[in-house]
Amino acid sequence: MMRAVVLPGPVAAEDLRVSLVPVPEPPPGWIRIKVEAFGLNRSEYHLRAGLATGAVFPIVPGIEATGTVDLAPGGEFAVGQQVVAMMGGMGRAFDGGYAEYTVVPAGSVLPVKTSLDWATLGALPEMLQTAHGSLHTGLNIQSGQSLLIRGGTSSVGAAAAVLAKERGLTVFSTTRNPGRLETLRALGVDHPLVDDGNVAEQVRSVLPAGVDAALELVGTNTLPDSLKATRVHGTVCFTGMLSDTWTIPDFYPIDYLPNGVRLTAYGGESSDLPPEAFQHYVDLVAEGRLPIRIDRVFALDEIAEAHALMEAGGAVGKLVVRIE
C-alpha cells in the first residue's frame, strides 16, 4: 500500500485528504516511479475545483512527478535512475503524481543527473517544459528580441523571464502587486511593470513600436491588451489562465486582433522539452546561473493547505510537495 491523494470528484481545497491505496503495477511500456517530490500546477486546481473538462474520477491528480525508477518492465530506464515525468495524461486520463508511487508512459519520462535536492528538482519539470515550449515552440524567440510576460510572478512567468534573459532577450514582465516589482528585478527582468490593465501603454512608452513577442499567462481577460503591446508582425502566445478566464465569447478575429499581430497558443507535452535541454537547465540551476524561485515546500499531508495557497494566488514562484 502507499499514500496518495485521491479525488472522488470536485472538492474544496480543505477537503483534500491523503488515503492508503494499492501500489500501482506498470504494464509494458510504462514506468513506475518512486516519487520524491512534485510541483503544484494551476491545472490541478482546475481539476480539483471542477473547472477541467475530460477528467476521469476518482483519480490521483498531478501532472508531474520527480523521483527514481522503481520498475521498468520494458527496460527503458534503469531501476534507481533519477527521472522526471510530466503531462501525457497524468492526473487526468490516469493517476498522476500526488502519491508515493506513480505509473506513467515511458514517453512521458525524462532522465536527469543532478545533485540538486529533491524539492528543487521537483519544482522544475512542468515549469520548465511550459516556459521552454512557450518561448521556443509558441514564440520562436531569438536573441536580441523584446518579450512581454503577462503574469510574471507566477512560476512559469518567473522561469520564462530567466530563460529569455539567458537567450539574450530584453524582458518586460508584469505583476498586479507593486510590492513584487523587486522580485521581478531579481529575476533579471529589464522592465518590471505594475499591471494596471493598460500594460500596452507602458510598454509602448519604452518601445513605441511594441514588443516582438508576448507570453500571455493571465487569461483572455488581459489578452487584448497584450496584443496591443505587440508590434506588427510580432507574436503573442496564449499559454496560461491564472485568472481562470480562457474563452473568448463571440470571437471576431478582424475586430479582436490588431492588424498584423499574430496570435498562437501553447499547451504541449514533455516531448517539446528535449532531454538535453532539460539537463542543461537543471545544470544551470545547480550552478546558480538559473535562479528558480520556490515559494514554499509542503509535506504530502499538507496538500490541503498547499492547494488553498495556490487557489488564492498567494505564491510567488513554485509550490512544491516533498514526499518523505
Question: What does the model show?
Answer:
It comes from Kribbella lupini. Keywords: NADP, Oxidoreductase. Pfam families: ADH_N, ADH_zinc_N_2. Residues 12-321 form the Enoyl reductase (ER) domain. By secondary structure, this protein is an alpha/beta fold. The chain is built from 10 helices and 15 strands. α3 crosses α4. The longest helix has 14 residues, at 125-138.
Binned strand content: 25-35%
The helix content is 25-40%
Sheet with most strands? 7 strands, mixed
DSSP helical segment count:
10
What class, by secondary structure content? alpha/beta
CA radius of gyration is 19 Å
The residue ranges in which pLDDT falls below 50 over 5 or more consecutive positions are: none
Q: What are the secondary-structure elements, in order, as H or E?
A: EEEHEEEEHHEHEHEHEHEHEHEHE
Shape, principal axes of CA atoms = globular
Distance between the termini: 15 Å
Summarize model confidence as the mean pLDDT: 94
Q: What is the tally of beta strands?
A: 15
InterPro entries: ADH-like_N, ER, GroES-like_sf, NAD(P)-bd_dom_sf
Keywords: NADP, Oxidoreductase
Domain Enoyl reductase (ER): 12-321
Pfam family, one: ADH_N
